[in-house]
């Protein structure tokens, strides 16, 4: 599991929609994560970080959490998930859904929650009779993205329902896989953090500063194959040597895309 950073939780400044709901969310988050709940007053976030020696600040605003670090801010946003769901509704397909061979009623284990966009697409594709379990090793990221999936409003009914159906666990993927029964999921998915980012943004910079940057291991992939009934999929740069190193010899994805999906069929 990635090292837990020194963090605090607070609310927006007084006068900025400083609601009771934000205070309750901050208190609940502090108790859940075992970190200080700091009164905001009129102090800036930088002043609070300096005062408490915190590397990261969780801010409760509008009923959701924003994670503020020196590298940027991370907050829940479905990203391209809404467009990908529209494509699926129109019958245009989705490269991840195709790689995982998603269908109504499947059980999917997403071992790398990240921003949550892939998990939303997976949840939509497997429908109300399917399940998506998403893992995130960093408790701060899990709180921000898991809270967004549970409380944010989707762009449409399909996205909203898909978000609510995702179950998030804060745990290391290998630890979780080791205790799962054989064949307990139809598909297992990995999206390791790229060593060289495809694009820079404040949100992705904050995510990268806290995310587990370790490469996948042979043991983790072997456990995924034991747990999966149908296939294991890994997302990587198209030219990545990780596919061959870990035994993902079937490559899928858009012909001109910079990313691809390695597939191991069980």
From TrEMBL:
It comes from the Bacteria. Signal peptide: none annotated. CDD domains: AdoMet_MTases. InterPro entries: 16SrRNA_methylTrfase_J, SAM-dependent_MTases_sf. Pfam families: SAM_MT. Coiled coil: none annotated. This is SAM-dependent methyltransferase. It comes from Selenomonas noxia F0398.
């Amino acid at each position: 599991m990635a090292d837990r950073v020194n963090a605090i939780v607070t609310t927006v400044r007084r006068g900025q929609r400083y609601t009771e709901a934000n205070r309750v969310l901050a208190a609940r988050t502090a108790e859940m994560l075992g970190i200080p709940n700091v009164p905001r007053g009129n102090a800036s976030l930088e002043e609070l970080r300096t005062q408490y020696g915190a590397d990261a600040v969780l801010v409760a605003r509008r009923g959701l959490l924003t994670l503020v670090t020196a590298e940027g801010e991370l907050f829940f946003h479905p990203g391209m998930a809404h467009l990908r769901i529209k494509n699926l509704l129109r019958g245009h397909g989705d490269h991840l859904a195709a790689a995982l061979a998603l269908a109504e009623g499947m059980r999917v284990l997403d071992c790398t929650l990240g921003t949550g966009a892939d998990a939303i697409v997976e949840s939509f594709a497997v429908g109300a009779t399917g399940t998506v379990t998403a893992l995130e090793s960093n408790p701060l990221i899990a709180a921000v993205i898991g809270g967004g999936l549970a409380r944010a409003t989707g762009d449409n009914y399909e996205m909203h329902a898909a978000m609510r159906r995702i179950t998030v666990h804060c745990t290391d993927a290998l630890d979780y896989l080791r205790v799962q029964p054989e064949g307990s999921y139809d598909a297992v998915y990995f999206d390791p953090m790229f060593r060289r980012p495809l694009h820079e943004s404040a949100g992705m910079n904050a995510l990268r500063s806290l995310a587990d940057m370790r490469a996948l291991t042979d043991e983790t992939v072997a456990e995924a194959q034991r747990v999966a009934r149908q296939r294991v999929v890994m997302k990587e740069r198209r030219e990545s040597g990780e596919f061959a190193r870990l035994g993902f010899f079937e490559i899928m994805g858009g012909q001109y895309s910079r990313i691809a999906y390695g597939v191991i069929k069980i």
